[in-house]
Design a protein that fits this description.
It is found in: Membrane. By secondary structure, the chain is of the alpha+beta class. It contains 12 helices and 26 strands. The strands form 6 sheets. Strands 12, 13, 18, 19, 20, 22, 23 and 26 form an 8-stranded antiparallel β-sheet that branches. Strands 4, 6, 7, 9, 10 and 11 form a 6-stranded mixed β-sheet that branches. A hairpin with a 2-residue loop joins strand 24 and strand 25.
Length: about 550
């Protein structure tokens, strides 16, 4: 249920996600006789008269589908099929997409694009875990865009001793790209990239090829995208950027994710919730191999833009009075959590995240009356458009994964970002110049006296234009019950720091000295010019007195 975007839902006895997240009761999926799959869908249609019950009965067939896939040798051609689906024709044509998941990965990843055929032909994906296995499943979507995942099938994978196998796949990917099939090329490159024994040269070459195929696809004005193609491309780009040691290449990959998200919105075919969740997770963990490694600010800027564009896509496609959570608040593996809500008005919001060490961090946002008034329904979300609802999000970063480290400071709190979006378009609303937009409270995790007497506690915000932490329009109000409190006149990312005041004093002294020097450089030439003119006038007067009158 969490994979499908319903973290608070539970599976009922029929295998459906039920609860407040989905709005489905516990009996969902049962036929008129109260049984789960005891009758075929044809029998169910014969029994059920009510149209709603027919729809519920009809969906049972997907859970009965079985994936047929035997063990295979990595990088060699593999055949798989989905069988025993008892689905009436009016629900077709069905689309099938093959997914796989390793025991050391949190989410499944797409192996193929979506297709109408129930037979899959692909090159064997290598295993990355010690068991040498992968769990395969199939995402099946009917003509009403209702999608479900089949049960998982564990498959044993044998190593390929042919050293040229990966080179062959790389070459095959190039042929697919030349033929205009960028998605098959991306699928092959993803298979090559999964190997844990790749050299850095091969990784960078594969990443460059992957980027070239994606850019070529994005540059085609007539290129349409299916949901399966979008999910595959998002996965390949976001998953394997962490293997790059080339900063410029990483920046270009994040730019491609941003452009792909914008293109999907332009085509009115946004990625599904599962794809967005997986992509956001990959973006937020792209530094997990070496979190201390220096990352160029341009790379972080591109990653942050890609991340925020995915939030924009989410905001544009949310239903009224719904909430979407990226990351799990109760799972210590997720150290960044985002909650996006669409409501008729702005409401206070909070997030609590349990970390790996067992401690919890909290971020709370109390919305000011002035801000509530601006976004009170109906409000101007576009020059000629009134909106009856508003979308807002709160993200809690336990680590500064998408923000550069601030030199000569100690960060005392996690980073909290609060944003407001217009519904249907997802455009982020810029708020600034207010006296008190929001009150932010964030758990204190650092030493309140870090740095000593020369340091002061300040609440700073992330200035996207200047690409630096700034204090303008943000004020620290003190500590309360283990939390640091700030109020701000605008919306962005916030955190509380201990900043070195001696550096600021040095900067002020330097500024004063520079101003005095500038004044001297300006005044001295003026004084010299004036003095020269006085001297010339004096010489002229003296010479006039020395000339005899009869010579004039």
């Amino acid at each position: 249920c969490e994979i499908l975007g319903f973290p608070k839902a539970e599976l009922n006895e029929c295998g459906y996600c039920v609860g407040e997240d989905t709005g489905l009761d516990n009996d969902y999926g049962k036929n008129c006789a109260g049984n789960c799959g005891s009758s075929t869908r044809i029998d169910c249609y014969a029994i059920c008269d009510d149209e709603t019950i027919k729809n519920e009965c009809g969906r049972q067939g997907i859970t009965q589908c079985q994936l047929v896939l035997d063990s295979y040798v990595e990088y060699k051609l593999v055949h798989a099929s989905i069988e025993r689906c008892e689905i009436p024709g009016e629900y077709g044509p069905l689309e099938y997409q093959l997914y796989a998941q390793s025991s050391d990965e949190k989410y499944p990843f797409p192996v193929t694009v979506s297709q109408i055929s129930n037979v899959f032909i692909f090159y064997g994906v290598p295993a990355t875990n010690e068991e040498g296995t992968l769990e395969y499943s199939v995402k099946i979507c009917d003509s009403f865009h209702y999608c479900e995942m089949t049960s998982k099938r564990s498959v044993d994978i044998e190593s390929n001793r042919n050293n040229t196998a990966k080179d062959f796949l790389d070459l095959a990917a190039r042929y697919h790209n030349v033929a205009g099939d960028a998605f098959s090329a991306l699928s092959l490159i993803a298979t090559v990239m999964r190997s844990p024994q790749n050299s850095q040269f091969l990784q960078n070459r594969a990443l460059q090829s992957m980027l070239d195929y994606t850019v070529k696809m994005l540059q085609k004005p007539s290129q349409t995208l299916t949901n399966g193609q979008i999910s595959l491309t998002f996965h390949v780009l976001s998953k394997y950027v962490q293997f790059s040691d080339n900063q410029l290449l990483s920046q270009r990959i994040f730019d491609a994710i941003y452009r792909l998200a914008e293109k999907s919105m332009g085509l009115h075919n946004p990625p599904d919730a599962m794809t967005i969740k997986h992509t956001i997770h990959n973006i937020l963990t792209f530094r997990k191999n070496d979190e201390q490694k220096f990352v160029h600010p341009n790379v972080l800027r591109a990653a942050l833009r890609a991340y925020k564009t995915l939030l924009k896509v989410t905001a544009a496609n949310m239903a009224l009075e719904t909430q979407v959570t990226f990351g799990s608040e109760d799972n210590s593996e997720d150290e960044t959590v985002t909650v996006v809500t669409r409501n008729t008005s702005l409401e206070d919001i909070s997030i609590s995240v349990k970390l790996k060490d067992g401690n919890s961090i909290v971020a709370k946002v109390t919305v000011g009356d002035e801000l509530k008034k601006i976004f009170k329904s109906p409000w101007k979300c576009a020059p000629n458009t009134d909106c009856e609802s508003v979308v807002y999000s709160l993200t809690l970063f336990s680590k500064s994964v998408l923000f550069p480290q601030n030199k000569h400071t100690f960060r005392l709190t996690p980073i909290a970002e609060y944003s407001i979006y217009s519904p249907n378009t997802g455009n982020e609303q810029r708020v600034k110049g207010l006296l008190k937009s929001v009150l932010i409270s964030i758990t204190l995790v650092g030493n309140q006296t870090a740095g000593g007497q020369t340091y002061a506690t300040e609440c700073l915000y992330w200035n996207e234009v200047m690409q630096m932490w700034d204090s303008k329009g943000v004020h620290f109000t003190g500590f309360t019950a283990g939390e640091a409190n700030c109020w701000a006149g605008h919306l962005t990312a916030f955190a509380v720091f201990r900043t070195d005041q001696s550096l600021q004093i040095g900067v002020m002294i330097g500024a004063v000295v520079a101003a005095l020097v500038a004044m001297l450089l300006l005044v001295v030439p003026i004084v010299c010019i004036i003095q020269r003119r006085k001297d010339k006038l004096a010489i002229g007067a003296s010479s006039q007195r020395l000339v005899p009158r009869h010579l004039e």
